[in-house]
Write a structure and sequence with these properties.
single chain; about 300 residues; Phosphorylase Kinase, domain 1; 2 domains; 10 strands
Length: about 300
């Protein structure tokens, strides 16, 4: 089946296997892409939660949604990545196969070309300010792509690109739950300012999950952006969250300047970062909970300066 061939409609009468593993990936590839059945399959070093990803030989990856909520992203990426890729200044995934439900697996899935690189942890970046401006150039290029007929924000994007009010109740509940450990007035002020800074511009393309795990570097430079599962057209403020989760000081200022953002978009970006940090504070993974605390510290420090 070619990348452009329509897959079978995802089945709803099959439960997801308990293990989305190499064995399942091998069965799916053998059934649907026999020309690649001889290639070794192994997990990627850094996997994800929304999808399970495996190396297929040295030049491709198999990407399997881990649940029904992520399955609609497959058709979206297959449709739009070939449109977006040629218009962007760094590499993005290239679909080379469009899989259907089968082998006890109920969803459509993808085969992509492999992109060589490492996730953009701070210690792998030579110059964080240059990295910030390179990332801003990617986002500017993405926003320039014609948004006509692009997928509007919705469940497929986890409402990234849509109004922050979608998460108002969840955010306020998290603030209340952490009342004893948070400066409630300051946190609430950041959130309310984000809600008040409504989006009034035309819809533009957004990536939806600009996080270090979806940014690849080689030789210290940004070379690729992956995982467009949350992409769509709408408000691009969600793509600024990296300003508080990875960037700081001069690099954050350079990122904002290179994007040419107005105060309202920056405020909404703070809101997206705040929501994510608040709902991660109690994560069972201590590293994630610590990350959330650091992001909150960055947001509160910036709020204090801006007052």
């Amino acid at each position: 089946m070619s990348a452009s061939s329509p897959p079978d409609v995802p089945r709803t009468d099959v439960t997801v296997p308990d293990r989305i593993d190499v064995t399942l990936a091998r069965r799916l590839v053998a059934e649907q892409f026999p020309q690649w059945a001889h290639l070794p399959i192994r997990p990627v070093e850094v996997g994800g939660w929304d999808n399970r990803t495996f190396h297929l030989g040295d030049a491709m990856t198999v990407r399997l949604p881990s649940g029904a909520g992520y399955a609609p992203q497959v058709a979206k990426e297959q449709r739009w990545l070939p449109v977006l890729g040629p218009r962007l200044p760094v590499e993005v995934p290239t679909p080379v196969g469009y899989g259907r439900a089968g082998a006890g697996y109920p969803y459509t899935w993808s085969v992509y070309g492999w992109i060589d690189g490492q996730t953009a942890r701070a210690e792998r970046i030579d110059d964080l300010t240059r990295f910030a401006t390179d990332l801003a150039a990617f986002l500017r290029a993405l926003r320039r792509v014609d948004a006509t007929d692009g997928p509007a924000a919705g469940p497929h994007s986890a409402w990234r690109g849509g109004p922050l009010s979608t998460y108002d109740a969840e955010t306020r509940s998290a603030i209340e739950a952490h009342r004893e450990r948070l400066p409630v007035d300051a946190v609430t002020a950041i959130w309310q300012a984000a809600l008040d800074a409504t989006w009034t511009g035309p819809p533009v393309w957004f990536h939806g999950d600009i996080a270090y795990g979806n940014l690849l570097v080689r030789d210290g430079r940004l070379v690729a952006v992956i995982d467009f599962g949350c992409c769509g057209v709408g408000d691009p403020a969600c793509d600024t969250v990296i300003a508080w989760t990875l960037l700081h000081g001069a690099s954050r200022a350079a990122f904002r300047a290179a994007l040419g953002l107005d105060d309202a978009t920056w405020a909404r970006g703070r809101g997206w970062a705040l929501w994510k940090a608040l709902i991660t504070l109690d994560d069972r993974d201590p590293a994630k909970a610590e990350w959330a605390g650091r992001v909150l510290d960055e947001l509160l420090a910036e709020h204090s300066v801006a007052r």
